Amino acid sequence: MHRLDLAADEGNLFTNAADNPIGYKDPLGLVVEPVLVPTPNGMQIRYFDTAIVLDLMAALAEAKATGIPIQITSAFRTLQEHADIRAHPRGYPVAQGASYHEAGLAFDFNRQILTATRRRTWLQIAARHGFCEDVADDPIHLQIRHIQEYGYGSLDEAIRHNQRSRLDAYLAQRAGERLSGRK
């Protein structure tokens, strides 16, 4: 388990739970894994590719130290979840099989709690840690800049890899959230 201790009196804000309940072995050491992050419903687990976890944790810690409250609203999505979002009247602008969310290499944040100044500062912090806005008409979305820097040859390879690496564990965690009334 990786820990990022921000201050002795705050405890552990982010926890990277590196267990592997389905026993998937990845030759590159990359999997989608659960990470405890701030969300609109408090601290909750969201799934991210292991390649971006440390960069994400560092960006969130820097934002917190700067006084910017970041809430993650979405991260890894199954292909079906992505298709469901696209089918919604205000659906996601990126086609299924072409989203960095499907690879665990992107996340959305709650911009409603940020002033314009704090949003600009957050985007600068995120950029320093390798995340960029790269989807037109999606102002809450951040993703990695160059997929090759994270151990994959292409987005398609990352999606195929991460859709199978932790799918069972991810679906079980999401089902538990739905039963408890959290999204």
Secondary structural class: alpha+beta
The helix count comes to 5
The largest sheet has its strands arranged as 1-2-3-4
What is the subunit arrangement here?
Answer: single chain
Mind telling me which CATH architecture this is?
Answer: 2-Layer Sandwich
Helix and strand succession?
EEEEHEHEHEEHH
Question: How many domains, in number, for the residues?
Answer: 1
Mean pLDDT: 78
- Are there runs of 5+ residues with pLDDT below 50, and where? 1-28
Helix proportion of residues, in percent?
25-40%
Major sheet characteristics: 4 strands, antiparallel
Radius of gyration: 16 Å
Describe the protein's architecture and organization.
The structure is a single chain. By secondary structure, the chain is α+β, with helices and mostly antiparallel strands. It has one domain (2-179): Muramoyl-pentapeptide Carboxypeptidase, domain 2, CATH 3.30.1380. It is built from 5 helices and 8 strands. It has helices at residues 50-65, 79-87, 116-128, 155-165, 167-179; strands at 2-7, 11-16, 32-39, 42-49, 72-74, 106-109, 131-132, 141-144. The strands form 2 sheets. The protein has a 4-stranded antiparallel sheet with strand order 1-2-3-4, sandwiched between helices. The longest helix is centred in the first third of the chain and has 16 residues, at 50-65. Residues 1-28 have low confidence and may be disordered.
